[in-house]
Amino acid sequence: MARPNEQVGALLQEYADLVAITGGAPYRARVYEKAARSVAGHHLDVSTLDAAGLREIPNVGDSIAAKVVEYFRTGRIEEVERLRARIPAGVRELTQIPTLGPRKAMMLYDERGIASVQDLLDALDAGRLRGLKGFGPRTEENLRHGITLLRQAGGRVTLDVAMELAEEVVAALSALPQCERCTYAGSLRRMRETVGDLDILAASTKPRSLMKALTGLSLVSEVIAHGDTKTSVRTTAGMQVDLRVVPPESWGAALQYFTGSKAHNVRTREIAVRQDLKLSEYGLFTVPPAQRRHRRKATLTGEPASGEGPPAESTEPTEPAEESGPPEAGELVVSKSEQEVYARIGLPWIPPTLREDRGEIEAARDGTLPDVVTEQDIRGDLHTHTDLTDGVAPMTEMVAAAAERGYDYYAVTDHAPNLYMQRMTDEKMLAQREQLHALAKRYPHLTLLHGTELNIDPDGEVDWPADFLAGFDICVASVHSHFNQTRAQLTRRLVRACENPHVNVIGHPTARLIGHRQPIDVDLEAVYEACADTGTALEVNASPDRLDLNDEHLLAARRHGVKFAVDTDAHAVAHLDYLRYGVGTAQRGWLTAGDVINTWPLRRLRTFLRKGRKGREKP
Ligand code: DGT
Ligand code: CA
Ligand code: CA
Ligand code: ZN
């Protein structure tokens, strides 16, 4: 995604928040919010556009275009600065709490002097919100719950935020002549759904120049620790970045170590120890014969080996002290690649997304590791939007981008009428279908599917009757409202949607938004059963704010024989790239290409989409 677009998008969003907080007209805030989304999602790099070019972007008029030009000319937007100065940062932080809007945040500040999330929690505890208009017991409960959600996210960021930063740091370091290799490791490489800090690994014989380059980056706001092999910084956005530099011959072992997870590493170390090897971030070493008996005994009794420093086989290994060299040990065993490390301890290479000690060690040993789905396996996206509803790009651009990606097929699935804000009608939907069919002529290698994203209503019904639904190539159906029904109601609701012969995919099945909305309370086992029985796929929504189903759900669902669709739910061209996060999540759920319907050839997919209905065979 073009970085300038993101920057300007974030700034316009902040401006919208500031306008709302300071009591500006709500429509003005909405104008800036819409513009923020359009700019962030625009297919051209906005820093290359002049005012006229900027005005071509949907929702961008004269005044916003002027602000964007001002930003690229001066590095700031005067009016944003002016509003920023009027409000303490803590008040803006308050608006991060789900359910707390800008108007109420400002009221808390004006009436009670509350200027941070902690202030608010204290005020709630002390009962100091009593008597404040619009803050009844119900609101208080919602606020507490919102703060819990916010804290759970606890400084962790979503994958897209971490990835963008990682790619920037890796690119900067890789550009140095002293840098032989550089990549990101840690939870980001494992594609965990949120990332605590970034772990960047580099190979070089001249580590100092790399450390200096890191601390000199403009995105660094604070140097936390600065050394020859390890440096930690904090970015202006508050994220910690750890850089380790190792000699090139230790690359494989270091990458294995810093990719983790910790639980996986404990297991691989144990395996090494049993073979008289020592596996650490410094490499894979033979253990000198004199030390072996000692170490063996320690492993067996679980007691630490005495007198030889930290034992390699401890289940809680500690990070070596800053600047300490490799521990006294035997000879370095080749470890230029992870493959060599795993091979030497008798295992095949294990994909990073599986390294959570969730059975991958045993599977590797037994030769039953799953052949997990990859981005190259994906033949098309089956859940995407256009500007006919809440997308920001016209269909022509979305389709062009899909063709560019080399997809075999691509489904346009705009929202159906029951999501009232989107103002969908039968006529609009049918007109879109005509346009899509016309567009298809331009793309002989891409099959365009016309679909929709239906709303599953509180009773499990969807927007249109069967005869209208029959006109679509594919129907995704999702829960977009009434999240607080009982478990029994929600379960029944999803099961009924599966039983609809025209519903092919359940979109974002738990409806959670990472850090903002809890998953709905539903008996997923019952839903898995229903999906397997009816030939309905469950979505792995690749949007980094959703990742829904998540890895743990997938591990459970695949045992029921459910099929899945890994889709982006793209609302902009750039969102098509979110696919990687969906694939990462699918891998963490041990899914193979066979489990994922959008890796299948079109004919097989078409058969699946008919759900056993009789119908004309389409090409
Ligand atoms: P995060 O940052 O909370 O999202 O999660 P990770 O997995 O990136 O954890 P982090 O940054 O603390 O450490 C990066 C990797 O370094 C971790 O996945 C495995 C390795 N590592 C860190 N501390 C230890 C440790 O005490 N023992 C072992 N065996 N490995 C460790
Ligand atoms: Ca980390
Ligand atoms: Ca770290
Ligand atoms: Zn959608």
Automatic annotation (TrEMBL):
Listed A to Z, the keywords are:
DNA damage, DNA repair, DNA replication, DNA synthesis, DNA-directed DNA polymerase, Methylation, Nucleotidyltransferase, Sodium, Transferase, Ubl conjugation
Q: Which GO terms describe its cellular component?
A: cytosol
Task: Give an example GO molecular function.
Answer: DNA-directed DNA polymerase activity
- What is the first-listed, main subcellular location in coarse terms? cytoplasm
Domain named Helix-hairpin-helix DNA-binding motif class: which ranges? 52-71, 92-111, 127-146
Catalyzed reactions: 2'-deoxyribonucleotide-(2'-deoxyribose 5'-phosphate)-2'-deoxyribonucleotide-DNA = a 3'-end 2'-deoxyribonucleotide-(2,3-dehydro-2,3-deoxyribose 5'-phosphate)-DNA + a 5'-end 5'-phospho-2'-deoxyribonucleoside-DNA + H(+); DNA(n) + a 2'-deoxyribonucleoside 5'-triphosphate = DNA(n+1) + diphosphate; a 5'-end 2'-deoxyribose-2'-deoxyribonucleotide-DNA = (2E,4S)-4-hydroxypenten-2-al-5-phosphate + a 5'-end 5'-phospho-2'-deoxyribonucleoside-DNA + H(+)
| Residue ranges, compositional bias (Low complexity) | 306-331
UniProt xrefs under CDD domains? NT_POLXc, PHP_PolX
Enzyme Commission code: 2.7.7.7, 4.2.99.18
Give start and end of each Polymerase/histidinol phosphatase N-terminal domain. Answer: 380-458
Pfam families (UniProt xref): DNA_pol_B_thumb, HHH_5, HHH_8, PHP
Residues of the DNA-directed DNA polymerase X domain: 3-356
Task: Give the residue ranges for region: Disordered.
Answer: 290-337
- A single GO BP: DNA repair
SUPFAM superfamilies, sorted: DNA polymerase beta, N-terminal domain-like, Nucleotidyltransferase, PHP domain-like, Sec63 N-terminal domain-like
Locations listed in the record: Cytoplasm
Name the coenzymes or cofactors required.
Answer: Mg(2+)
Q: Which domain of life is it from?
A: Bacteria
Q: Give the protein's biological function.
A: Repair polymerase that plays a key role in base-excision repair. During this process, the damaged base is excised by specific DNA glycosylases, the DNA backbone is nicked at the abasic site by an apurinic/apyrimidic (AP) endonuclease, and POLB removes 5'-deoxyribose-phosphate from the preincised AP site acting as a 5'-deoxyribose-phosphate lyase (5'-dRP lyase); through its DNA polymerase activity, it adds one nucleotide to the 3' end of the arising single-nucleotide gap.
Q: What is this protein called?
A: DNA polymerase beta
